[in-house]
Amino acid sequence: MVGGGSYPQPGEISLSHNGVLFLDELPEFKREVLEVMRQPLEDREVTISRAKFTVTYPSSFMLVASMNPSPGGYFNDPNAPVTSSPAEMQRYLSRVSGPLLDRIDIHIEVTPVPFEKLSDERRGESSILIRERVSKARHVQTKRFESNEKVHYNAQMTTKQIRTYCKLDGDCMSLLKTAMDQLNLSARAYDRILKVSRTIADLDASEQIESHHISEAIQYRSLDRDGWLG
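^ thats the sequence. predicted structure below, dont judge the formating
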């Protein structure tokens, strides 16, 4: 648990009270443990089967995970004290299966922050303004799915609902097709890009998904790109 100034150690699990599961240093977990999460991430349910009975429990949560793509802890940093070859990094990353990564909506590569930015006194957007924008987007989604008891926000959309609420114009469809072909994305990634782009449009207070919403959503699939380790 995270609280009281304590933080999870590498390979530890942190589950907050609001249904957020945080896994630190994802490749350090045993692969069979990670693979168990594939069903709840996809179906938001956990099914336990025994010889005489099968029980299904609801399991709706937000998974947040962090990882170093390099076993040495540094990635593409020429000044790093410990470096790993692309082959070593690929072997390390392979501890996390492609099907599991495919079920994670957003992949973000975080680069080291240089001293100039750390010491910059200019303030970014305040948390209050960000919270207001997120609250407005969640309200839009609540209204969108108010007639459905099981769906309350975009991430929960079924394939049928994606086709209804994520309609694309010709430019958006062409952009997405190019990304699918060039990045070799899966059908599951296709649906997730549409869900994320719908959310980006909601944050932008846009009724329609536009090409820059699609572009931003595609950028959040970095681990899907063939050869991203170089």
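Residues 127-144 form the longest helix (18 residues).
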